[in-house]
């Protein structure tokens, strides 16, 4: 019973996340790295969606289409601390996923039903997380960015990040991406199944969200566990 309460409080506690406005230096960095992205369509949050710790506890950052939008994307960071290069590199990684998403239908769709999530899920079902082409290319970009920071004597955790080094990013051609190249050449049955799964998620999540919202009122936020 106590474990159930802990899970419920974890879910309800992550239901309403704090929206964050990145530092001007971070936003300029993202604009330099991915100049074709319309950043008015991207919102940033500290914390992870309520369902992420349940299905992917290893995740510290995530980029997803907004479930109740035709065009918006959300970037979630477990702890938003731009004074650390590792946090900025996580943002760079997740922003690369947004760039990938713009490859399909220009990023538009019905909530979770976007070309990106359909193709991503299909490739994930075949190859898993780390061998997924979408993740391989995002990690490659993250590692290139970390190498760039290392060359400027900026490390992952310490010392505090010196945002002035980001001004040199436009001169690093290997870091600049205007688009994402991808061609699906695998099992089309998986692609169809992926679309069905996204369709089901789009239909079910609003019901679950209402349920969790009500549970948050029924069960006090602070309970002795």
**Radius of gyration in whole Å, from Cα?**
19 Å
The total count of strands amounts to: 6
Give the strand line-up of the largest sheet. Answer: 1-2-4-3
Residues in helices, as a percent range: 40-55%
Shape: globular
* Unreliable sequence segments: none
Roughly what is the average pLDDT, rounded to an integer? Answer: 92
Largest beta-sheet details: 4 strands, mixed
- Percent of residues in beta strands: 5-15%
Order of helices and strands: HEHEHEEHEEHHH
Kindly, what is the distance between the CA atoms of the first and last residues, rounded to a whole number of angstroms?
A: 10 Å
Number of domains: 1
Oligomer: single chain
Query: What's the tally of helices?
Result: 7
Helix/sheet category:
alpha+beta
Description:
There is one protein chain. The protein is α+β, with helices and mostly antiparallel strands and 225 residues long. It has one domain (2-218). The protein is 47% helix and 10% strand. It has seven helices and six strands, in the order H-E-H-E-H-E-E-H-E-E-H-H-H. It has helices at 2-13, 24-33, 52-55, 85-101, 115-127, 133-151, 188-218; strands at residues 18-20, 42-46, 61-65, 73-77, 109-110, 113-114. A four-stranded mixed β-sheet has the order 1-2-4-3, with helices on one face. The longest helix has 31 residues, at 188-218.
Features:
alpha+beta, four-stranded mixed β-sheet, two-stranded antiparallel sheet, 7 helices, 6 strands, 47% helix, globular
Brief digest:
With 225 residues, the protein is α+β, with helices and mostly antiparallel strands. It has seven helices and six strands; from the N terminus they run H-E-H-E-H-E-E-H-E-E-H-H-H. The chain is globular, with a radius of gyration of 19 Å.
């Amino acid at each position: 019973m106590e474990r159930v309460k802990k899970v419920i409080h974890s879910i309800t506690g992550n239901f309403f996340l704090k929206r964050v406005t990145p530092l001007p230096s971070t936003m300029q960095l993202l604009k330099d790295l991915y100049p074709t992205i319309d950043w008015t369509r991207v919102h940033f949050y500290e914390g992870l969606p309520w369902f992420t710790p349940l299905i992917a506890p290893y995740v510290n950052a995530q980029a997803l289409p907004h479930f109740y939008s035709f065009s918006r994307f959300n970037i979630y960071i477990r702890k938003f601390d731009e004074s650390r290069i590792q946090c900025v590199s996580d943002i760079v990684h997740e922003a690369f996923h947004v760039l990938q998403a713009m490859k399909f239908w220009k990023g538009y769709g019905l909530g979770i039903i976007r070309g990106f999530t359909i193709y991503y899920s299909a490739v994930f079902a075949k190859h898993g997380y780390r061998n997924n082409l979408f993740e391989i290319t995002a990690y490659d970009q993250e590692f290139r960015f970390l190498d760039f920071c290392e060359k400027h004597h900026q490390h992952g955790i310490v010392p505090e990040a010196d945002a002035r080094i980001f001004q040199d990013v436009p001169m690093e051609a290997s870091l600049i991406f205007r688009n994402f190249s991808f061609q699906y050449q695998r099992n089309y049955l998986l692609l169809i199944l992926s679309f069905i799964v996204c369709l089901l998620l789009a239909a079910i999540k609003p019901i679950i969200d209402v349920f969790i919202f009500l549970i948050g009122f029924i069960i006090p936020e602070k309970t002795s566990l």
